[in-house]
């Protein structure tokens, strides 16, 4: 018999919410996560409620498992006629917990969450020294009041400088660049064209979050744009200078594994090919990581 439990890692984190649809909308619309499975609603018997310190009059439970990027999944519970406490535990209460979400770009993530009305409990703080040197973190509240955290350390943490034999989980170590199908890549490029033609700010930012990595790099021969904000600013300037112009696809898309080429044209109805060019996409983890722009290419 083994002297240790044969544990591979954390499979999921479970949370209770007052409104299941509100929670799923929050995780999907804000974070881009997706609910994969559902159990229930099904009733719980008296013995189960007693063993789990539940109120006997609480009703049936519905459970959804949410795919949350490269980390553990989130198991969301919602109870009908919930008779349990409606108060969140204080930070110093036994049983208090929070979920920390990793982001490669803290500033843009905070700006996006604030634009969606998310309340923050302070401002991002960069750890200046010690084991967590280089880590930036900030707490925020979910729409139902649960405490959560954003954390970022794109250049690693201080303790890694000592080359420890054991390292903490990092998104860089867990991400595998999954190969997309040609149909998936073509759909992504269609959304890319929609993005560059979209003039509604909220819709444009939603597509940015959907198809571009937060730390995307766009490289034109004359400039480099980093992140969603700089690319969005460039799109806005294009619309301002060319109010009647649209991007359209000029030739079939070329695909080689997770690299693709889009030949495009930009113009109005009278001359749709006023400007022509080619975009080269480097796709990692289902999003565009690098975008090389060649103007004048046919």
From TrEMBL:
Keyword terms: Dioxygenase, Metal-binding, Oxidoreductase
Domain VOC, first and last residues per copy: 9-153
InterPro entries: Glyas_Bleomycin-R_OHBP_Dase (IPR029068), Glyas_Fos-R_dOase_dom (IPR004360), MMCE/EMCE_epimerase (IPR051785), NTF2-like_dom_sf (IPR032710), VOC_core (IPR037523)
Example GO biological process: L-methylmalonyl-CoA metabolic process
SUPFAM superfamilies for the chain: Glyoxalase/Bleomycin resistance protein/Dihydroxybiphenyl dioxygenase, NTF2-like
Gene Ontology terms for molecular function: dioxygenase activity; metal ion binding; methylmalonyl-CoA epimerase activity
Protein name per the record: Catechol 2,3-dioxygenase
Organism whose genome encodes this protein: Mucilaginibacter gossypii
């Amino acid at each position: 018999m083994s002297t240790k439990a044969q544990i591979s890692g954390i499979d999921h984190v479970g949370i209770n919410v007052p409104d299941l649809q509100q929670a799923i909308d929050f995780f999907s619309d804000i974070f881009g996560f997706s609910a994969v499975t559902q159990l229930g609603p099904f009733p719980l018997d008296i013995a189960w409620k007693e063993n789990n310190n539940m109120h006997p009059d609480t009703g049936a439970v519905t459970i959804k498992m949410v795919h949350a990027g490269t980390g553990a999944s989130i198991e969301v519970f919602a109870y009908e006629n919930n008779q349990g406490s409606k108060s969140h535990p204080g930070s110093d209460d036994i049983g208090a917990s929070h979920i920390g979400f990793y982001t490669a770009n803290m500033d843009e993530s905070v700006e996006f969450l604030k634009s969606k009305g998310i309340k923050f409990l302070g401002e991002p703080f960069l750890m200046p020294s010690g084991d967590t040197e280089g880590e930036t973190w900030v707490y925020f509240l979910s729409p139902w009041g649960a405490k959560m955290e954003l954390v970022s350390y794109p250049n690693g943490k201080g303790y890694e400088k000592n080359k420890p034999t054991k390292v903490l989980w990092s998104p860089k170590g867990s991400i595998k660049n999954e190969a997309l199908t040609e149909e998936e890549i073509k759909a992504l490029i269609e959304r890319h064209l929609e993005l560059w033609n979209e003039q509604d700010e909220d819709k444009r930012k939603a597509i940015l979050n959907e198809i571009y990595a937060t730390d995307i790099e766009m490289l034109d021969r004359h400039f480099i744009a980093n992140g969603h904000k700089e690319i969005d600013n460039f799109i806005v300037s294009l619309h301002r200078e060319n109010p009647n112009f649209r991007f359209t696809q000029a030739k079939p898309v070329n695909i080689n594994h997770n690299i693709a080429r889009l030949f495009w044209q930009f113009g109005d109805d009278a001359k749709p090919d006023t400007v022509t060019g080619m975009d080269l996409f480097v796709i990692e983890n289902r999003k565009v990581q690098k975008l090389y722009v060649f103007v004048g290419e046919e």
